[in-house]
Model the fold of this input.
Amino acid sequence: MIGVLEELAPQIAAEGKRLHAQWDQARFDELTRGPAVSLRDALARQPDSTNAATLTAYLKLLREALGAGYLKHHQTLNSDGPIRSSFLEFGLLHLIPEFLHVEPPHARLDALAKIWNLGEGLLNGPAWMDRYVSAFTSELGRVGDAESFLLRVLGPALSPSEPASWEGPLQIAVLDARPAHDPFLPGDMVLAAPSVLCIRDRRAPDVHLGVLLRKGGQSRILGLFPHLDACDEDAPGPSVQCGEKRLQVGELAIDLPHVGHPHRILTAQAGFVVVSAADSQRLWIVEST
Done:
């Protein structure tokens, strides 16, 4: 297997240069020295007649992903380490090199194709969806589980929500942005999807956090996001007034401890009011139960 990579890589690189006008040979060389070597070494520990075909298919996926502009040079940094720019990049550069060898040899080519199809499908879908899925990739440790993983993590975000009646009672949850990005100070907020919130950093306007809004106090910060456009919500929300210690939503009211001076307020028709404060890294998530 050691000689197979050295023989295949120049051939596939030559095809990449012929097929793609913006071919980046230096980046392809970097990929063949990194994740491709990791996959080769993992496969070599389990000798099988299909290993060469698997490595060839993987190199061709790297070629196509690089030629299509799916693989970036730089990665956004989070407190937990680098965030892949897409689910496809995570799959090609992390999941496959580390875990493909766990799959049965006869299933590996299909698993490669599945990662490609799922990843490209996410890239061609709504902008929030790929970034949302990428926030959960630490939970995926097997290539063959990719499809069930996507169904599981996308389910809460894609489940249709009826407009809230706002009949109450109200309950509150407090989220702290600091563990996701230490200097983050919540600023402008938009709904990228009915239950996915994108929040701009007041200190660094190019930095955003994603938040998943879920009932029962289950809302959570998803991590660093790219800028996402706002989605349209047709149903009007209730009247909202927020003071230093109390939030009034229509006829309902709830105490907001430690808010101080409110900075931004966002209402989601699914039954949420999100409040940020002028001098706090926290978010107050008020939901209609």
Notes: The first strand starts at residue 76 and ends at 78. The longest helix spans residues 2-19.
